[in-house]
Specification:
The protein is an all-alpha fold. It has a domain at 2-23 and 67-239: Transmembrane di-heme cytochromes, Chain C (Fumarate Reductase Cytochrome B subunit). Helices cover 64% and strands 0% of the residues. α4 runs antiparallel to α5 and α5 (131-164) runs antiparallel to α7.
């Protein structure tokens, strides 16, 4: 029961800490506006990097916004990590293997939960019961095998790359090594726990035990679940929590080109930012922390 409760608590903390990070990002002051282009929402202009400022007296005209182009650009980054593909192709193969594997494992986990709930209701998940049960059965098998394989390979090769690449090694912090080792340990123990039966029938049984707080513990299962719980709690506030910050990075910084017109919300935000007293916690000969700089 304790193991099941701790898993529920870890998931709740993951969601809660993620929401806290969203609130923290949302309350951050206005960024330095630089009008970086292209901006996907600029309908008809994002393809060549143009903007509404091309129009004569643009401030008198309504803006043409393309949400479809914006969503398309977002999906390219979310599903394919396009910018890394364009700018660092050799690293993209490793990173994309890891990220794609995570997406597949999320699908696998959802299928596992559906399968566990189905069996708890008295319907066996089997290829011979019905079309839908066969579909659930085979999708669980395929996503489980592919997910664990490409995620583990991706994390391992990313770790090796950071250790042996002389350039990347200079920019890798101890925390980044810890992140990769934590992920790798969680995946390897997961492989030991979940994959001895590649039909994942035993995995559905364990998932049912977790859902009903009736886990029958064994050493490897305890180690895996504890690592998974630590990972759930650790990810949101760590560098791996960039899934939270990406919205603000793109929509509030990279793509924020709302015109700063008199009386507009942007003008109010700019005035509020200018009125905010900067607080510095570091010193230098040219830094004045408590008084205005000398003329």
């Amino acid at each position: 029961m304790i193991l099941g409760l701790s898993f529920y608590m870890a998931v709740i903390l993951f969601i809660g800490l993620s929401v806290y990070q969203v609130i923290k990002f949302a309350k951050m002051p206005l960024h330095g506006r630089m009008e970086l282009y292209p901006v996907p929402q600029e309908k008809g202009r994002h393809t060549y990097g143009g903007s509404y400022m091309e129009e004569p007296e643009w401030w008198r005209k309504s803006r043409q916004i393309s949400k479809a182009a914006e969503i398309t650009d977002m999906l390219k980054e979310m599903l394919f990590i396009k910018k890394l593909f364009d700018n660092h192709r050799s690293l993209w193969w490793l990173s994309y293997s890891f990220h794609l594997g995570i997406y597949v494992l999320i699908i696998w986990t959802i299928l596992l939960i559906i399968g566990a709930l189905t069996e708890l209701s008295g319907i066996p998940v089997s290829a011979s019961v019905s079309f839908w049960m066969a579909l659930l059965y085979y999708l669980t098998v395929v996503t489980g095998i592919i997910g664990f394989t490409i995620t583990t390979v991706g994390v391992f090769l990313l770790l090796v790359r950071r250790i042996f690449d002389p350039v990347l090694k200079k920019y890798t912090t101890p925390q980044e090594y810890f992140n990769l080792l934590l992920l790798l340990a969680t995946l390897l123990t997961g492989i030991v726990v979940w994959t001895p039966d590649l039909s994942f029938a035993s995995a559905r049984q364990i998932m049912a035990q977790i859902l009903t707080l009736s886990v029958i513990p064994n050493v490897m299962l305890v180690i895996h679940l504890v690592l998974a719980e630590v990972m759930f709690i650790y990810i949101p506030p760590s560098k791996m929590g960039h899934y939270v910050g990406k919205y603000f990075t793109y929509h509030k910084i990279l793509w924020d080109n709302e015109p700063n017109l008199a009386g507009s919300p942007v003008e109010s935000r700019v005035k509020a930012a200018l009125a905010t007293q900067a607080k510095t916690s570091w010193g230098a000969s040219h830094i004045q922390t408590s008084q205005a700089p000398e003329a």
